[in-house]
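Continuing the series of single-chain predictions for the mutant panel. This is the parent chain; the variants come on the following pages.
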Amino acid sequence: MKFLITGTAGFIGFHLANYLIKRGDTVVGLDCINNYYDINLKYDRLSFAGIPKDKIQYNKLVSSDKHPNYSFIQLNLEDKENLDRLFAEQKFDKVCNLAAQAGVRYSLTNPDAYINSNIVGFLNILECCRHHHIKHLAYASSSSVYGLNGKSPFATSDNVDHPISLYAASKKSNELMAHTYSHLFKVPTTGLRFFTVYGPWGRPDMALFIFTKAILENKSIQVFNNGNMVRDFTYIADIVEGVVRVLDNPPAGNKSWEATHPDPSTSPAPYKIYNIGNNNPVKLMTFIEAIEKTLGKEAVKELLPMQPGDVAATCADVTDLVADLHYKPETRVQEGIENFIRWYREYFKV
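Parent structure:
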């Protein structure tokens, strides 16, 4: 198979690309390499896969010097003309769209970035998949779409009409847009609601990275909602395994779907939504204790109130993932944290 993976300078895209490369698939990676966080980490991820920084130019396809089946292009999803040209030239079989403006709190102060990347950019991806006969589009949604939903665990059959951040609203919009293209143009699409992804090469704006850095530098950590947070932390290798299984199994449409009792996670069209989470939520304080244990240092905690846009607890119902794809994430938090901190110490030489 020949894959386009967008967001390959990012956390999940980097790991997914490397998985498929090793499996023997042909992969074209795409990323705009924006400065939402340290671009040096993004360039280092690309370099790890054989794409040196000095060869990267906008809208130029660069071949990996490590993997003959991997190449990369710096491109904005909003650049419709060049994106369409890339699809026409490369003739992809499948697409995984992981490129997006990430971050709940950032969306409170920079809303335009979310509309440009997550709405306009995603529309361009859908249009390219439609016109170039892509066999399957999988795309990143988010657990944040559950918003004010107080039921636990979160199920894909739940109502998600009450997002509490523009980031979440943009991801819910992606799901609605994808369904439209599945219904009208028979483009097979699968939305992936990720739950708090962590692990080596992770994002510097995420809790594990922030806490590890602060503890090692003898600085205090900010603990929101006075520590009364619960998260379904999901290890990156488990996320990638789930994404690959989804990519390999395009939805065909649900023949037993009932219009009078509609399940929002499926459709008579080739459309599906999955949660990919650990289904084993952990208290934030327990998560911090695991970091302290691994580092051998206690954190100085600054307890703060809940932040706008945050939710108190997340937990993924992965019943559909298990039933359809025979898969359930299982990496324990302590093991995942140890792997991350081992990478962090090696990467930053601390």
